[in-house]
Amino acid sequence: MNRALFRLSLACMVMFVLLLLNINYVQAFETSKLAGEPGNVRTFYQQFEFQRGSIVAAGGGQDVTIAESLPDKGSSGMYHRYYPYGAVYAPVTGYASMFGKTGIEGAEDKYLSGTAPGLAVHNLIGLLTGKAKQGAKVFLTISPRAQQAAYRALAAEYSSGTGGHSGAAVAIDPSTGAILAMASYPSFNPNLYATLNGRRLDRIDRRLRHDPSQPLLNRAIEETYPPGSTFKIVTASAAFSTGKVASPDTTFPAPQPLRLPNGNFLNNDAGETCGDGHPPLWFAFAMSCNTAYGGLGIKVGGPTLRSYADRFGFNNPSLTTPLAVAPSVFPHITDPSLTALSSIGQYDDQVTPLQEAMLAATVANGGTLMRPYLVQQVQAPDLSTVSSAHPSVLSRPISARVAGYLTTMMTDVTHNPAGTAYATAGPQATGLDIAGKTGTAETGSSVGLDDAVFTCFAPASNPKIAVGVIIKGGGFGADAAAPIAVQIIKAYLGVR
Amino acid sequence: MTAVPSPPAQPPAAAPARAAGLSRAVPMPRGRRPTELLMLVFAIGVVLFAYASVGLGLNGKVPSSLPEYGLGFAVIVLLAHLAVRRLVPWADPLLLPLAALMNGLGIVMIYRLQEVGRNGNAGSLSVPLSASATFIQLVYTGLGVAAFIAVLLVVREPRLLQRYTYTAGVVGLVLLALPALLPAHISEVAGTGARIQVAFGGFSFQPEELAKLALAVFFAGYLVTKRDVLALAGRRVLGIDLPRARDLGPVLIAWAASLLILIFEDDIGTSALFFGVFVAMLYIATQRTSWLLIGFFLFLGGSYAISLMSSHVGERITCWLHPFVGSNPSNACYQPVQGLEGMGVGGILGTGLGHGQPFWTPLVQNDFIVTAFGEELGLTGLMALILVYGLMVQRGMRAAVSVKDPFSKLLAGGLAFMLALQVFVIVGGVTGLIPLTGITTPFLSQGGSSLISSWMAIALLLRISDAARRPAPQPIQDEGMTQVVRAAGAGEGAG
């Protein structure tokens, strides 16, 4: 019987080896998969049991903590999230709630929660030395001054006049792509989401979700608007780059109205004539004459316009900052009449406020578009750098020469008394050297005013900041959007 | 096997007592009791350390109950050691310390789970443990060790049990069938649908735990007498000698009985355990691989047929194959998923005792207690626990191999395999290796029945190991004694 016993012992050994192999698989190789299973209640509560990393707005030489974890008074050993500035930074930080995370809280969660592979060694050392686990700190490119100014200006616009004009503003450092401000109004107070009471959280979330003013919407990157005349930057770029026109001084027919090939008429904004009806392009740009640029668009052609729009960042569904950016749209068109409408930013053209800032940033940076980014640096709790941003080129839409042409033309918009933004963004009014382009976009709806759009950079001679502003239903770009851009620039450059 | 005649039974204490005077002259082989004591003290130390560690992990303080419970546990297992010294002095030195270690760690985990939601600690259990759960488990440990000593006292010679083969068989079957015969409110474990207990007045008892031992005795006694017939070869198919059709009777009866357990008590784990142990013992007795194959396919076929009929079994298989699919994690597979996620949190080193969240797993103190260990002691700790079980099985098998009496050999092999299979079925079940079947974790799970029967099984193994290792009375001994008597009586010169 001993032979059978021996074999049975071997069978037992095999059973135990199988048990050991299986638990090795579960506990050594499958842990992250198990931790990531939706509804893993342990992972869920673990996140509140240690100090999540802070988020710091560190652009423009200032360090301001905009999200941090504090010990919860209600439940011992738990932490809750605190946003000292409430709604101001909400479009950037998003929120970290029990049930989900948005914004930077979501995009950089692996660092903030300390689970990123780059933090593994640090965590292990912490474990061995008995130090409490802590998340990494995320430093953003956001400039507190610019962000505060953007938020305040948008809030003031919302409550001024007829009121209720929501909007967003984005500021970029043109030479790096660092996002200096990203504000949206109406916004929400992310502290509401920091509660550790599930039922309360559910109620708050439902209320904000159904709020008609859409406070949870980050209009700066999640919403698109018609660009209006600001798209003439792209049309002019395409025309200069393809040699259809030689320079800003080249004259171009600007009839009032322009009869389109399909028999419809294209008018200038208020039906006014544009100079002598045959103005130089810079003048038509400064006056924002639709007929000149409609005609120019037809001359360049829909597919070529689209290829230039793409280079400026349009039609890119995979752009992230690392927050996902809604793609700005320039449609596929060959029909010349529709091309004329599209080349002045109407028809199916759609842009995010970020895209507006990218237009100005490209011109400001000599024709090179830098990839916009929000995260400057990630710092482990021991202050060592886990990752830091490397500015990179997203595309080179236009040459330095063409960028120079556009700088002159955009400077004329604000500096020439005939320019559309002379009164609101010109040197006399602001004391600043801004180059910009206004847009007043017809939304196709008979209710309310047009969307006000403004894209600009400053100082025009040595650009430090590029800004895009869109106010929904704000009316004239120069009146509603440009003053907000001016506020942001003033705050960022430290000019009173 | 039978070619080697077993030595005649010797009154255990007689020879050493008579030889006491000459122990210096003729060195006797020695028992390993000092080794056992040392290992036992080590096991007690590990348990006390773990107990203190739970308190430190939970609220930074050594539990105030440590001195009394620690002392109680130490006294209980040291009593077991004294009994071993007295009753089975030649027995294996490792089995008792290993059993004590597992039992102690079980108490530690039950203390840890008892503290869930108490004294400001986090969590709440789906079925909260009473505030005296640790004390009760300690009492069960005392009862287990009492049963252990009783077995050692009553069963003085393992093969004497063979006389009670059929009595054991009847007792085993009655115990097994009892819950199925009793009304559901007495026999059903609340919420599980499994009818495996006898409950009255707040106490419950799982008769199958004792039935295991009785049936192991029955199988050993039955097979030892029938093994020559069962080993006869019938037809040869694919290089395997099949048994004769008329000899299939016993295995078919055991199969049918295990299926009946499955159907009437909805307890696939016990069913698998009984049938597996029977087939394994049949194999030890006959050395015929064909019995293993027949047994294996009968079990698979039976389980498959049942799985088609019973939604309960089908659900278990779904949770084994697709625990995380669809709504499984929050519904049907909630318990196994919680167990696995707990182990995942534990990772390689574990959260540390008192730092994990084992309370999320429903009924974690019973079938899923190893996942709690996996969570708080990590892969490292869980591997150590499984290796301790492996060592216990190995020591049991060793006793089986070295004992000469065929009945004892079968019984020890069967008991060791039963432990191995039980660990495989429950640990494999909760860690997702095989479909989950409810069965207790030997020595660790909360509850008295399992603990008592586990201690009794260890007692039987120790008794058999003692019989195997007891030195054979030496023929020269009598001669030597005569010489000594002669020398003592008349002196060298007179001889």
Supply the number of helical segments of chain A.
20
Query: What is the CA-CA span between the terminal residues of chain B?
Result: 45 Å
CATH architecture of the domain at 228-374 and 392-493 in chain A: 3-Layer(aba) Sandwich
CATH-level-4 superfamily name of the domain at 228-374 and 392-493 in chain A: DD-peptidase/beta-lactamase superfamily
Class of the domain at 228-374 and 392-493 in chain A in CATH?
Alpha Beta
Placed side by side, the strands forming the largest sheet of chain A appear as 3-2-1-4-10-11
Topology:
The complex is a heterodimer of chains A (496) and B (495).
Chain A: H1 2-29, H2 31-35, H3 41-46, E1 55-57, E2 64-71, E3 79-82, H4 90-93, H5 103-107, H6 109-112, H7 120-129, E4 137-140, H8 144-159, E5 167-172, E6 179-185, H9 198-209, H10 219-222, H11 232-241, E7 258-259, E8 265-266, H12 281-287, H13 290-300, H14 302-311, H15 336-342, H16 353-364, E9 369-370, E10 375-379, E11 385-388, E12 393-395, H17 400-415, H18 422-425, H19 427-430, E13 435-441, E14 451-458, E15 465-471, H20 477-493
Parallel strand pairs in A: 1-4
Antiparallel strand pairs in A: 1-2, 2-3, 4-10, 5-6, 5-15, 7-8, 9-12, 10-11, 13-14, 14-15
Helix pairs in contact in A: 8-20, 11-13, 11-14, 12-17, 13-15
Chain B: H1 14-19, H2 33-59, H3 66-87, H4 95-114, H5 133-154, H6 165-181, H7 184-187, E1 198-200, E2 203-205, H8 207-230, E3 233-237, E4 240-243, H9 249-265, H10 268-286, H11 289-309, H12 311-321, H13 334-346, H14 369-402, H15 406-430, H16 448-469, H17 475-494
Antiparallel strand pairs in B: 1-2, 3-4
Describe the fold and architecture:
The complex is a heterodimer of chains A (496) and B (495). Chain A is an alpha+beta fold and 496 residues long. Chain A has 20 helices and 15 strands. Chain A has a domain at 228-374 and 392-493: 3-Layer(aba) Sandwich (Beta-lactamase), CATH 3.40.710.10. In chain A, helix 13 crosses helix 15. The relative contact order of chain A is 0.13. In chain B, the strands form two sheets. Chain B has a two-stranded antiparallel ribbon. The radius of gyration of chain B is 25 Å and the shape is globular. In chain B, helix 13 crosses helix 14. Classes of the chains: A alpha+beta (496), B mainly alpha (495). At the A-B interface, helix 1, helix 2 and helix 3 of A face helix 10, helix 13, helix 14 and helix 15 of B.
